[in-house]
From TrEMBL:
One matching Pfam family: MarR
UniProt protein name: DNA-binding MarR family transcriptional regulator
UniProt-listed InterPro entries: HTH_MarR-typ, MarR/SlyA-like, Tscrpt_reg_MarR-type_CS, WH-like_DNA-bd_sf, WH_DNA-bd_sf
Species of origin: Kribbella kalugense
Keywords: DNA-binding, Transcription, Transcription regulation
SUPFAM superfamilies associated with the record: Winged helix' DNA-binding domain (SSF46785)
Domain of life, source organism: Bacteria
GO biological-process terms attached to the record: response to stress
Keyword set includes Transcription regulation: yes
Entry keyword annotation includes DNA-binding: yes
GO molecular function, one term: DNA binding
Length: 141
């Protein structure tokens, strides 16, 4: 049995490898056109179900507003998001997904799911339920 520190390092390395594989596979067909940070922005806007102010988007992502502005600039240039004036505050700007942004997000999610299904196919249903249980315990911590 590995020492606790060795187990921690081994688990961290395995999780990093799985996450890298997921990120790489979800972008399949898009090359480097969509970064992980951009994917997070697209996903956050989609989950909001309404346009968000840049400051609210930054808060939900846990980043500074300037960083959110830079990512939104790149996504807007790619035609994946659009800025629009806030009807309730002339000084504020709202950000929303474009139809192209929704489509690429759908494709990224589909790719990510397919890769995970392939990985999980090596586990029995019982193993998958155990994995879900253990990951949930770690996530709740």
């Amino acid at each position: 049995m590995p020492a606790p520190d060795d187990a921690a390092e081994q688990i961290a390395a395995l999780l990093d490898g799985i996450v890298r594989r997921q990120r790489r596979a979800s972008r399949e067909g898009f090359g480097t056109s969509v970064t992980h940070g951009q994917f997070r922005v697209l996903r956050t806007l989609d989950n909001a179900d309404q346009p968000l102010r840049l400051s609210e988007l930054a808060a939900r992502l846990g980043i500074v507003p300037r960083s959110a502005t830079s990512v939104v600039d790149d996504l807007e240039a790619a035609g994946l998001v659009e800025r629009q004036p806030d009807p309730n505050d002339r000084r504020a700007t709202l950000v929303d997904l474009t139809p192209a942004g929704r489509q690429i997000l759908t494709t990224l999610r589909k790719n990510r799911r397919e890769v995970m299904l392939t990985q999980l196919s090596r586990l029995t249903n019982a193993d998958q339920q155990t994995l879900i249980h253990l990951l949930q315990r770690l996530a709740d911590g």
